[in-house]
Structures are given as structure tokens and as C-alpha cells.
Amino acid sequence: MSEKLTLFPLIILTIIIIINIPIQSSALRYPHDLVNIVADSVEPQNDAPQPKSESETQEPSSKSLPPRVPALFVIGDSSVDCGTNNYLITFARADRLPYGRDFDTHQPTGRFCNGRTPVDYLAQYLGLPLVPSYLGQTGRVEDMIHGVNYASAGAGIIFTSGSELGQHISFTQQIQQFTDTFQQFILSMGEDTAIDLISSSVFYISIGTNDYIHYYLRNVSNIQMLYLPWNFNQFLATAVKQEIQNLYTMNVRKIVLMGLPPIGCAPYYMWRYGSQDGKCIEMINDMILEFNFVMRYMVEELRLELPDANVTFCDVFQGSMDIIKNHQRYGFSVTADACCGLGKYRGFIMCISPEMACRNASYHIWWDQFHPTDAVNSILADNVWSGKHTNMCNPMNLKDLVAGKAE
pLDDT by residue (tens digit) across 256-292? Predict the structure, then answer.
């Protein structure tokens, strides 16, 4: 009963903020439409399959390997946020159950998932501990020596993307936070040692989703009249390229740039556009395909312009669609419905209560309106690391990148 009582004020607050957000187009509204909600409609959801035991959860086999690189630095959005937004005034938070229920501690951590994000699995492959969020560590060099996660839910390439949700750390601000970290390293260990650490470490960048969800698809500032999707994607790619060049001037040399997932298959958009039989919204996915194409071309340009840098592009759309199309082979039985949410495809209401969640998320591809489950994150991490299930990365996977193998 207490769960439902605490749920009701959150719903009311969310309704208030939604009502005050100007809507540019009735067909492209802000995702969290929480109008005409009745709290008593929140009931536990059931899954047809019997729950898997926790021992069946996939984990990297390289847990005890010695570190392959000194550190892992993460820049991005909610796809890799590990707790940054816990310290911000924002509606984009994952600091309460059922988020984190299948994490190691079975407690919410700020990750927008039932368990781990892809970078958590990649840290294991690299032989590193899970890296802390920038705002969640003490600021001592000892706490940052194995890497820092700067990612913030709601962040986009465009500074104001996601700002209607509240505070977030934008892409440019995250680069500045890394600059501050680098300066701390120089002061603590000397310039040569700091440069050696940074140039040998891996930088993982996963950003751009919110520039669609919270900017282009909402038609903020009439952006759709100013930019066709192709031009918008070129604008985003140019901004990312500039920031990667800024990282290069700080001696960053190993970069994994992630593409965008099939947002058109997310439960929210399938609900929003009235998808029939769980079919993805092709209009949105076409935009994402263009984005990934432009970003991959941009990476090829960078590799020519920065010959001593090793930049690789990983196409999350390709890897995700492989999982959706071959879901039975991967052990998924629910491809369209989120594990946690309400409404058709459980995409109408965001995940805000344990009662809204399914019993076992490992049968679901989607955890909530926009984010995949831990099980999907594990598969995507396998692909980034070694192309285990499908080759997502070009010109090389992360395993070859850290080994210094030629293309």
C-alpha cells in the first residue's frame, strides 16, 4: 500500500510538468504523456514464461583478467549513465526500484536498466572495475585512476536537448569535466605519466538519442522546417567530430563511438504512432539509419585526419535489429512490450513503480519506454568487444582496438 501512496505524488508532479511543456506538433509530443492516469490502475504484470534463475544471466568470462588498458572513460546519455543524474534536479532519474533490481546489489544505482549497461560488461572485458560516475566519486585521483563515467540521462549533442526534464550534463559539459579530470591527473602524477595513461585508455561515447527524442521528433523551435533529417544528422556529426578533435588535443587516442539504436522500435513510439502487431515505426528508423551512416563516414574522415588515433564506430541499430529479428535464438519471447510500464506495448507510462514491472526481464528486449534490458546490453557488449553475435563495429571491434591490431 505504501508503494502506491508514494507513487501518486510523483504522477501528479509529472502531470504538472507535462502540462506546462509547449507541444510543437500533436503527432510528435514529449514522450512522457501522463494525462488521465489513475494510480489504482497500477498492478503487477505477469509474463507467460517461467522466470529464469539468476545463474542463467550472461556475464563476460574475463572477470579476473589483468587490465588490458589503464582506464575506461564514458561519455553519453541514459544508455550508459551509472548515477550522474542522482545528483541533479531532474525527472530523468533511475534511483528507485524497479530500476537496478537485477543489478549485483539488487538496488537502484541510477542506471536506466534492470541491471547493467553495456559499459559495465565492457569494463569486465577490459579487466577493470565498474567505473564511478563523475558526480558520485570523491574527487580523489585514486578513485578516478581506472576511469570515470560522465554520462548523464537526458543529455544530447545539442546543448538544450532534454532540458525540459530538468538538469543534465550536456555532451560539451562532459568533455569539460574530462578536461578537469585530466588536469587533476597532471597535477597529481606529472604531465608525462598523465598523458601516457590517457593515450592508453579507452573512451566510449554513446550520445545522440535525446537529440531525436527530446528535440527533433518534438519539433522544438520548428526544427523540422529548418532541417531535413539528412541535414540535421550532418549538423550532429559535425558537432561530434569537433568534440572528438578536442579530445584528441588532450591525447585521447582510443575511441569507441556508438551509433543510435532503432528508436522506432521503442515501446513509446510504437504506442505513440499506433503500431499494429508490434511493427517498428519505419519513418523514425529511417532517420536513425541516416544518422548512423553519417557518423560512420565522419569516423572514416577522422581516421584519415588523425592518423595516430584509433577511432571505431559501432552500429547499435544493426546489432539491435539482429536481436529483434532473431529473438528466439537469443532467448527472448517478448519483442515489443516493455517489461516495465503501462498502456499498449507498456509504452504509454514510464517505469515509476515496482508494481508496473514484469516478473522476469530476461525474456524482454525492452526494459522501459526507451531502454533495453540487461540481457540485451550484455549481447551488445559482446558485439562491441569481439563481434561475438554480429559484427557491429567498423573498422575493428574493441578487442582488436586495445590490442593495437591493424585494420
Answer: 999 999 999 999 999 999 999 999 999 999 999 999 9
Within a domain: 25: no
| Catalytic sites, residue numbers | 78, 368, 371
Q: What is the pTM of this model?
A: 0.86
Residue 331 counted as domain residue: yes
Inside any domain, residue 362: yes
Q: How far apart are CA 171 and CA 156, in angstroms?
A: 6
Query: How many domains, the chain?
Result: 1
Q: How far is CA 326 from CA 133, 198, 322, 323, 370, in A?
A: 34, 39, 6, 5, 20
| Residue 355 to residue 395: CA distance in whole angstroms | 44
Domain-located, residue 328: yes
> For the segment 228-251, what is each residue's pLDDT rounded down to a tens digit?
999 999 999 999 999 999 999 999
pLDDT tens digits along 140-168: 999 999 999 999 999 999 999 999 999 99
Residue 390 belongs to a domain with what CATH number? 3.40.50.1110
Give the domain extent around 105. Answer: 2-6+66-403
138-141 LR contacts (CB < 8 Å, sep 24+): 139/184, 141/184, 141/185, 141/188, 141/189
Which one-letter amino acid corresponds to residue 302? L
